[in-house]
Amino acid sequence: MDFYKFINSKAVREHLRKINWSLEPTAAAWLIWHWEGPIEKKLTGWKYIIDETEDCELKERLHCCEVLSLHEFLKKTIKAYKEHSDGFYDNRMGCCYKLRTYYADFSHYDHNMIFQSSPISTTIHEKVLEDLDDGNVLKFEITKQFYDSNAKETATFDPQFRMIGYDCSDEEWLNIYEVFMNQWFYFPLPFKAGDIVHVTSLPYYGPMVYEDSIYEFKRFREHPEDFFNGKTGDETDMMIDVYRVTDNLEPFWDTFWPVTDFDFFDEDDAKSYVNGDYCGINSNLDRYKMILLLSAAIKERLGLEILLSGYNQLKYKSQKEYYTSEIFSKAEKMIERETDDQARTTLPTDTDNQENDKTDTK
């Protein structure tokens, strides 16, 4: 079976294929668990591991006991997935539902209403279908809350109404979650410092600038054996450090995981993001321009005075006499010097800028 297809990131998936990176059954099982695809295909992938690969153990790790049989653990996981995903559709009394929709322009929307009917009801589907008509929906999320307890269940669906994710507070489910969450694997990455990336599983965070990953950290370089033998490291340690931009256009450092969810933020992504709705102080175009400046500064060591000048022009763009696109064009040209096998991204045109100026504070 082609286990590469279970990697959320196209960039990481293609890179591992290109270098013919070997995926052991334990790593393949973890990728399937984290993959945002139809649950039926997840179960098929795990069943293939059980039927076609040699059984092995999941080694004891810092926060996780040893699992003697990967196959037996996956059988329990398949059983739990079937029972819980089927039970999510049980429209019994004593619960309500909330709906959130995620869009291709890196935004999301929480529907301001409580649904009393099941997630396959006409009422909820009508709300989702209204968005699907625009062809801009990535996925939607339904949370099921029980009145008589603090228990809740969350299921994620793709635009074809196929369940692609599930989570709940059930003890059996939490035990499975903890085993997967406390695994750690090494995956070679295609990214370089200054590349503009985004997190596929968290699209609403938008573009960010790659700085480095756990595999480049001093504590990994000096003692990689601690990660491989389980002395330290879990999913949160498969991290990437990035720079993001606040609503006030201020850059800041942040960390996300796992590394297999990071993808290049390409030209199509940039157009969707810039033309998307954002109900903040500054437009997505201004935020993206700041990302371009940060990227160019990291890649080419852009002078501090140029970086600050560009920041000031964005921050105080109401002073029109100081507003020019010259600095941002320079940043764009620096990024375009990349070789063909790396990510490219293009600064929107002045026409795009004028259109977005009209909706800066939408």
For this entry, give a set of tags:
single chain; 362 residues; alpha+beta; 5-stranded antiparallel β-sheet; disordered C terminus
Structural notes for this entry:
By secondary structure, the protein is α+β, with helices and mostly antiparallel strands. The protein folds into three domains: 3-87 and 176-181, no CATH class; 95-166, no CATH class; 196-357, no CATH class. Helix content is 38%, strand content 16%. It is built from 13 helices and ten strands. The strands form two sheets. The chain has a five-stranded antiparallel beta sheet with strand order 2-1-3-4-5, covered by helices on one side. It has a five-stranded antiparallel beta sheet with strand order 9-8-7-6-10. Strand 3 and strand 4 form a beta hairpin. Helix 3 (39-52) packs antiparallel against helix 4 (70-87), helix 10 (284-300) packs antiparallel against helix 11 and helix 10 (284-300) crosses helix 12 (326-335). The protein starts with 9 loop residues before the first helix and ends in a 5-residue tail after the last helix. 32% of the residues are buried.
**Main sheet record:** 5 strands, antiparallel
Radius of gyration: 22 Å
On the 0 to 100 scale, the average pLDDT is 81
Please state the overall shape, judged from the principal axes of the Cα atoms. globular
Helix share of residues? 25-40%
The count of strands amounts to 10
Percent of sequence in beta strands: 15-25%
> How many structural domains can be distinguished in the coordinates?
3
